[in-house]
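Section 3.1: Structural characterization of target chains.
Under the original work plan, the team committed to producing a structural model for every single-chain target entering the pipeline before any wet-lab resources were allocated. The record below documents one such target. The sequence was received from the expression subgroup and is listed exactly as submitted; it comprises 161 residues.
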Amino acid sequence: MLSSLTAIHSVENNRFCETEEIHLAVKKIIIAAYDKTAMSLPNINAVRKFLFTKKNRRIENKPPTQSALKQHTRRAILQSSIWYPCLNTQMNVQSPASFGWQSDPETDVWMPHWADQTFLVKALKELTRCSCKKDCSSNRKCSCSTDRLKCSASCRCSCGI
């Protein structure tokens, strides 16, 4: 965990520098905060799936998606890069567009870019889960087949494994 904190502290010396090392450090800290047993999983989305399917965590008790975490991290890098030298008389500030913000063309107001929607569509499909005890192919009451979805790992049946 100390190496993660050291990586995050490096923002002080490398202002506006978004590195893979920082994203990995944030990922480790977030996973540890939600469930230390999930540290071996490859990414945040896998942790979310693990917490949902194996530990029955509700949506508000899970970490953000990989995409959302990346945008949060970018905004934090921008903010800390502005705050570190705040006592300097001249500051070189980069555009927020590269750090998790997007400009509304109509109002010219900066708004947070929360996440990429492509993942959200996939995540919504995974929220549907059936409670079938056997093969779902012949079960007309299967909630997955009713919604024209394939069973997922979160289903009670073994079709989605």
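Residues 128-161 form one domain.
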